[in-house]
Amino acid sequence: MKKLLRLRMLPLFLCLVITVFTCFLSIKNVSNVYGITSGEINDAKNEKEQKEQERKNVQEELDNYKKQSETTKEYIAKLDEAMSELDGQIYDVNNNIERLTQEIEETQINLDIAIEDADEQYKMMKLRIQYMYERNEESFLAALLQSTSMGELLNRAEYYTKISSYDRQQLERYQSTIEFIKVAKQDLEDDYAELDDLKASLEQQRTDMEYMLAEKQKEMQNLDAQIANAQNKETELASSIDALDGEIEAMEKKLAAQQAAAAANNKPSLGGDVVGTGAWLWPTISRRVTSDFGVIDDPIRGGVPHKGVDIGARTPGVSGDPIYAVDNGVVAVAESNPSAGNWIWISHGNGLYSVYMHNSKLLVSVGQTVNKGDTIALMGTTGQSNGVHLHIAARLNGTYVNPWTYLK
Known about the structure:
The protein has three helices and 13 strands, in the order H-H-H-E-E-E-E-E-E-E-E-E-E-E-E-E. By secondary structure, it is α+β, with helices and mostly antiparallel strands. The protein folds into two domains: 37-267, Helix Hairpins (Orthogonal Bundle), CATH 1.10.287; 273-408, Distorted Sandwich (Glucose Permease (Domain IIA)), CATH 2.70.70.10. Strands 1, 4, 6, 7, 8, 10, 12 and 13 form an eight-stranded antiparallel beta sheet that branches. Strands 5-11-9 form a three-stranded antiparallel beta sheet, with no helix packed on it. A two-stranded antiparallel ribbon has the order 2-3. Strand 2 (294-298) and strand 3 form a beta hairpin. Helix 2 runs antiparallel to helix 3 (150-264). It is rod-shaped. The relative contact order is 0.10.
């Protein structure tokens, strides 16, 4: 019984296989018929435009890094010059400190000698005073009375007076010398202390400069690495742009050949000559514009060009609002894109396209002819999107233009 059932199912299975294979051939033939599309060419041009903008940003970063590098090099050179000047000042201060040290030592020796001389003079004076005290005044009178003449008496009296006066003068002179040397030594020690403080200050300045120099050298190494990375990135982008130029040229030639073949066979050309009215219908229910065409402020990248108009959902955050074709045309692109999400391009003729991004669902396919007001997608937040909205854009001859020129 089971064997009989299997035999009966075999024709059905074969029929299913043939059907699937036929569908595969049909899809392949459709792909061969349509081949390259205007949307794909515009997509490549858009990618090239993005890479050119990215390259421009990298070049600006590179210029900025180079300017910072030049400024840092100049700062390092000034630090080196200042450190060399400080080294000279420290050298001079050390020499002066060494000289003052020697002068202080010599002054101390002179002071010791002067004190010793004063002490000796003081001792001699004390001995003479002691002698005169022990001999008392009678000996002095006796010496005077023993004079044989008036002249001798006067001479002896003057002698004793001169001895006392000499002792006093010598003591005063030595005392003045000692005071002078003490003041000179104190002045030298004060100078020494000032030079020592100056040396400490200069050495601290040099230590600070060494730290700043080390930090600037680290900064220089970082800038060198950033410059090298930016140069590599700029080189890669330049190569990528050159490759895209070649791809776009090849795609345009292929599209031209397809359109010529389509015209010869009286077949519709993809992105062909269905011409719109030029007055665009508003593309969805909501009229809440959340971001306009032009340059917008980005917290990370700064001023960023916004190449379309963002329209928020009728109920914020809720997907599913219908998206309408703004004008008559042919669907050139209907696919998923990493940044644009599910997007659609409609050709309206004469190089004009309407572009619809971030849709939750696509309701049309490539090559399909649409009329103004047809529902072509449902609003969503696919791709690089921060919320449910429609990004509607206009491209004219390969360049994004202000959609307000056509929107009514």
